[in-house]
Design goal:
Layout (H helix, E strand, L loop, with lengths): L5 E6 L4 H14 L5 E5 L2 H10 L2 H4 L3 E3 L5 H8 L2 E6 L4 H4 L1 H10 L2 E4 L4 H18 L2 E3 L7 H18 L3 E12 L4 H16 L1 H8 L22 E3 L4 E4 L4 H14 L9 E9 L1 H23 L1 H10 L9 H6 L1 E10 L4 E9 L2 H19 L9 E3 L1 H4 L2 H10 L2 E5 L1
Parallel strand pairs: 1-2, 1-4, 2-3, 4-5, 5-6, 6-13, 7-10
Antiparallel strand pairs: 7-11, 8-9, 9-10, 11-12, 12-14
Helix pairs in contact: 1-15, 4-6, 6-7, 8-11, 9-10, 15-17
Length: 406
């Protein structure tokens, strides 16, 4: 692809996260980034330009509908990298991935829909390798903090122990954030697909579903499904709703990196609820609440009712709530000979929106500027396997994240 007009095109720039991302690009990169905002509505693009102030007046815009494959290809022809915030991706995302693969355009998104990621890999990976398109799903809170947190831990293990940690746990230590209508819509659609299609259920239950074909280990992956005591961290834990996404992405990174995390590598995630009787009580309440939520969305009559209760697409945390949000993730790795290491990943802002907007923007910039096609060929990558240290440096510098050894 010869000299595209823009470094980045943000498709879905008028969505809830798209607006956060657009403001972040203006504030962080200024005139150093050539980018354009794209969406299907001219009036919403005009409103976005007005919201962005003086910078918005000069911001190029592109009107394009996700269902229009010709418009998707025309948009791709103008960009080095497409960042997509248009979800649920299982409903609206495939035409753009197809267009990127056909035109050799690099792409990243913030999907957490693992069943859709599986489908895209199966349908388009061979073509992406041929065209040179680098496709990087799950580049928001799902799953960059988890994926790069494990990558960082493994780097430190090699420095200290000269070997990887083949057993890793992540605990959501502290967390403050809200939900948006887009996330709710994606969850409802994923559960709907799983309940209606046994093949999708099987994919979503398989911890190695999106790994490379040559990586299908037989050892059992741990999965926190109920309240339980974690002696390694000295706390009670409950299931983490994002674990089913993040663990799959980390396992794919492990497979793409040539099983760099060691033989019989296992990875699990859970929510810390504290120690003692109060921690045990909170863990039980959280586990039961999550179980009730998943049962409700799995059952068709209650799923329809819950769809009315959840936020509408386009709704989400207020700017004040985004600023007040944060997340603190703790990782423990254990080597094959029993040595242990703990690291921390901290992110400011609401994790799913304020932080995701910044993380996604830096992933797009890393893809555009720090990841030469000559060194990193086309295909479906993960954040850790494609970006590694280069993205960690960007996140530390300009996205409110920190990675540290405890």
């Amino acid at each position: 692809m010869s000299d595209p007009k823009y470094d980045i095109v943000v498709f879905g720039a008028t969505s809830f996260v798209g607006k956060i991302l657009s403001q972040y690009l203006v504030d962080t990169f200024g005139k150093d980034l050539k980018w354009a905002a794209a969406a299907r509505s001219r009036s919403k693009l005009d409103a976005l330009q007005a919201d962005l102030g003086a910078a918005g007046k000069k911001l190029p815009t592109i009107v394009a509908d996700a269902d229009d494959e010709e418009a998707m290809r025309a948009m791709c022809a103008q960009a080095r990298v497409i960042i997509s915030t248009v979800g649920p991706y299982a409903l609206y995302g495939e035409p753009l991935v197809k267009a990127c693969v056909e035109t050799g355009t690099d792409y990243c998104d913030l999907t957490g829909e693992i069943q859709w990621v599986y489908k895209m890999i199966q349908k388009y990976e061979a073509q992406a390798k041929a065209s040179g398109a680098r496709i990087v799903h799950c580049s928001g809170f799902d799953s960059i903090p988890s994926d790069l947190g494990v990558f960082f831990l493994q780097q430190q293990a090699q420095i200290r122990f000269k070997q990887p940690c083949n057993k890793v746990k992540m605990r959501v230590w502290k967390f403050k954030g809200g939900a948006s209508g887009g996330t709710a819509a994606s969850l409802l659609n994923a559960v709907k697909e799983a309940t209606s299609d046994p093949a999708v259920r099987k994919q979503m239950a398989d911890p190695y579903s999106i790994c490379t074909p040559d990586y299908r280990p037989s050892h059992r992956q741990p999965d926190v499904k109920f309240a339980q005591k974690d002696d390694d961290f000295g706390v009670w834990v409950a299931p983490f709703i994002m674990a089913g996404i993040n663990t799959r992405v980390v396992q794919r990174s492990h497979s793409l990196l040539g099983q760099a995390y060691g033989e019989n590598f296992t990875y699990e995630e859970a929510m810390s609820t504290g120690s003692g009787p109060k921690g045990a009580l909170r863990a039980g309440q959280m586990a039961m609440g999550l179980g009730a939520l998943m049962a409700g969305v799995a059952f068709k009559p209650t799923r329809g009712l819950m769809a009315k209760i959840f936020p509408e697409p386009g709704d989400g945390p207020t700017p004040e709530q985004q600023l007040a949000g944060f997340y603190d993730l703790r990782f423990q790795g254990t080597t094959a000979d029993g040595q242990t290491l703990k690291v921390k990943v901290y992110g400011d802002r609401d994790p799913g929106y304020g932080s995701t907007g910044k993380v996604l923007g830096q992933a797009g910039a890393c893809l555009a500027f720090d990841t030469p096609k000559a060194d990193f060929p086309g295909g479906f990558w993960t954040p850790a396997s494609l970006f590694g240290d280069r993205l960690i440096k960007r996140l530390n510098k300009d996205a409110g994240l920190s990675f540290e050894v405890l």
